[in-house]
Write a structure and sequence with these properties.
By secondary structure, this protein is an all-alpha fold. The protein has a single domain, classed as Farnesyl Diphosphate Synthase, CATH 1.10.600. Helix content is 69%, strand content 1%. It is built from 15 helices and 2 strands. Strands 1-2 form a two-stranded antiparallel sheet. α6 runs antiparallel to α7. The longest helix has 28 residues.
């Protein structure tokens, strides 16, 4: 039986609140990537090119939405929101490289290695990951809760390392030309895409010193949303077009990569994404705070066209 969202999740201002967060975050991110006079000019330009070019900002929005549900204010969350988006930007630079997916288009523009060169793109990705942890560490210096921030840094490091995003990418590369089971494909994407999305939901719980039960619910919410998001990406690779998605269409099939539509078909893939969305929404029932934005983002993960 499908889980149905309760009326408490249908807050009318959720969409408006998310839009305000998007606007706020662009200013926050611009401040984090202001002119760095110590860096070589081309390297810094490549870092900004890959990070300040728009995008859905799904990850920072999840940070703000989870924090909002826990009663946190936006300034308490800016450093985490910025760090996870900068890590995401670095991962896209490396993911697009010829040694990885060899993509030429990202968000409707040439990928970083096409706009600059491969060496600059690699270094830009490396420098962005370092910048993300510098932002977190700098915030830690003046924090009243360094233990909580240390726990957040640990969570983010695991999410982007060998047991998270990087490990998932390694599995993805090894799977080219292979026949994977649905279980193996889901596990790969729980690492590659889902781990960083999950930490966006749980990092605010660390900062708020939430109970283990509340943190676990947000973790499960993040896991379901992360996998649903990836399934929908796989669907858009088949059904979308470059003008809408900003990426090269049918790229996965050209690379002979295992995908959800290839294993399940388009309809069953869409059904699985909806099932995961409903499981995510079920985790929000009875949550003590305002979960309207979290519910909105769970729906957006599979309703978007890019």
């Amino acid at each position: 039986m499908k889980a149905q969202p309760s009326p408490s999740l249908q807050t009318t201002d959720a969409s408006a609140r998310v839009k305000l967060w998007q606007q706020r975050f662009e200013t926050v991110l611009l401040g984090m990537l202001d002119v760095n006079h110590d860096a070589p000019a081309q390297l810094w330009q490549a870092m900004r090119y890959a990070t300040l070019d728009g995008g859905k900002r799904m990850r920072p929005l999840l940070v703000y939405a989870a924090g909002h549900a826990l009663g946190l204010e936006e300034p308490e969350l800016d450093h985490v929101a910025g760090a996870v988006e900068i890590i995401h930007a670095y991962s896209l630079i490396h993911d697009d490289l010829p040694a990885m997916d060899d993509d030429e288009l990202r968000r409707g523009r040439p990928t970083c290695h096409r706009a600059f060169d491969e060496a600059t793109a690699i270094l830009a990705g490396d420098a962005l990951q370092a910048l993300a942890f510098e932002i977190l560490a700098t915030h830690s210096a003046g924090s009243k809760h360094p233990d909580r921030l240390a726990a957040i840094i640990g969570r983010i490091a695991r999410a982007c390392g060998s047991s998270g995003m990087a490990g998932g990418q390694a599995l993805d590369l090894a799977a080219v030309g292979q026949q994977l089971s649905l279980e193996a494909l889901e596990q790969m994407h729980r690492l590659k895409t889902g781990a960083l999305i999950e930490v966006c939901a749980t990092a605010p719980a660390e900062w708020a010193a939430a109970s283990p039960a509340v943190t676990a619910r947000l973790a499960r919410y993040g896991q379901q949303v992360g996998l649903a998001f990836q399934i929908h990406d796989d669907i858009l690779d088949v059904t979308g077009n470059a003008q809408t998605t900003g990426k090269t269409s049918h790229k996965d099939a050209a690379l002979d990569k295992p995908t959800f539509p290839a294993i399940l078909g388009l309809q069953a893939s869409a059904d699985r994404a909806r099932q995961l969305r409903d499981l995510a929404l079920a985790e929000l029932r009875g949550f003590p705070g305002d979960c309207g934005p979290l519910a909105w983002l769970a729906r957006y993960a599979i309703d978007r066209d890019s």
